[in-house]
Design a protein that fits this description.
single chain; about 220 residues; alpha/beta; eight-stranded mixed sheet; 7 helices; 8 strands; globular
């Protein structure tokens, strides 16, 4: 995929997000159920399960300082699998970022110029994706937050930007991770850090669909949390 050419400020993002949320409220007659935080409520994707079965190495346990949360947006299940493994490894809670208008397989067809993601990529004003819920129970109690997302056109999938823009990361250590077929993590974590404008953001890590639990555990151990 091509790297995105432009980026928007936190203020601009929030202005557009507010307008998008208002439009969705007017268009909808019923509310959407909120995502919940749970350390074991989200099942790993089939890709991660297959990878785990193939690995003969046991996942090590890493202890972090204070409470840890794994926030993720997963379009196809791949990022979900990595997020679950991270949560299991460090004993963290999980929070899934869910768009109010979920993406279909047709929406995600980036090779189609008329698909949803293509239109959102071409028009920054469409990237302020409204979410079912952005409020994490006990958010202030988390000291470490992993932020996971697929890479879209060289940056973090924009539903994650919607989450980051409205939450206060002050005093938190934030660790990005992403999934992609071939693209690296690039500046995706740095751009999210600029959008958050708070917190201590560490260098992130990219995982492919075939990454094993041992690969993920090795990366976490190297973070020296």
């Amino acid at each position: 995929m091509l790297r995105i050419k432009n980026k928007i400020s936190r203020r601009q993002f929030l202005q557009v997000a507010g307008a998008s949320a208002a439009a969705l409220l007017l268009a909808s007659c019923s509310g959407n159920s909120a995502s919940s935080v749970s350390s074991s409520s989200v099942a790993a994707s089939s890709e991660a399960a297959s990878s785990a079965a193939a690995s003969s190495e046991a996942t090590s346990t890493v202890t972090t300082t204070g409470k840890t949360l794994v926030v993720y947006f997963s379009a196809t299940g791949t990022t979900q699998g990595v997020a679950q493994t991270i949560a299991d490894t460090v004993g963290a809670d999980l929070f899934e970022v869910v768009p109010s208008d979920p993406y279909t397989s047709d929406d995600l067809n980036w090779t189609n110029n008329d698909s949803r993601v293509s239109r959102e990529h071409n028009d920054e004003g469409l990237r302020a994706v409204a979410l079912e819920n952005t409020d994490v129970d006990g958010w202030d109690d988390y000291d470490t937050v992993f932020i996971g997302y697929p890479i879209w056109w060289g940056i973090a999938a924009w539903p994650m930007s919607s989450f980051v823009a409205v939450n206060d990361f002050t005093g938190k250590t934030v660790i990005p991770f992403c999934t992609s077929t071939s693209s690296g993590i690039g500046q995706s974590g740095e751009l999210l850090a600029e959008l958050a404008d708070a917190g201590t953001w560490l260098d992130g890590q990219r995982f492919s669909r075939g990454s094993s639990e041992a690969d993920i555990a090795s990366w976490i151990a190297g973070l020296n949390l």
